[in-house]
Amino acid sequence: MLRKFFKKEALQIISPLKGDVRSLEEVPDPVFSERLMGEGVAIMPDGGNVCSPIDGTVILVAETKHAIGLRSKDGTEVLIHIGLETVSLQGRGFRMLVENGDPVSVGQELIEVDWEFIRDKAKSLITPIIITNSKEKKVQVKQVIENVVGKTVVMTVSNK
């Protein structure tokens, strides 16, 4: 009975991008599709900027601006990796709106993306959203019919 009172609410991971939400199996890169970096989902973007899926802190800004890592107050770590083989673009097509250590809130814009440039230069636009410490957490991927940036829950994360 007391367990019910002390059980923490699962962290909701909100959609950071406009577009089609897909399974990681659909990502044409085994690092993501085989969950080597962790559990998650992917989004095939349909324009717009990358927004924060959680309230938390920026813990990683890739030098090449193609990826960002965030940590929530409960310790959940979220990696957003924009496109595939985008590291080779050396930051072109991306403009960071936050820096390492910055606090962020759900829906806050993190990265401006030139999707046309990325479409022309990268292997794919598909963008994995990964819980990098998912081995320590319980991750539940949600089935998404309509994706609304900053509102749609794509995953929930709780302690094991």
TrEMBL record:
The keyword DNA repair does not apply. Pfam families: PTS_EIIA_1. SUPFAM superfamilies: Duplicated hybrid motif. The keyword S-adenosyl-L-methionine does not apply. Residues 29-133 form the PTS EIIA type-1 domain. It is found in: Cytoplasm. Its main location: cytoplasm. Keywords: Kinase, Phosphotransferase system, Sugar transport, Transferase, Transport. InterPro entries: Dup_hybrid_motif, PTS_EIIA_1_perm, PTS_EIIA_component. It comes from the Bacteria. This is PTS system glucose-specific IIA component. It comes from Cytobacillus eiseniae. The lineage of its organism: Bacteria, Bacillati, Bacillota, Bacilli, Bacillales.
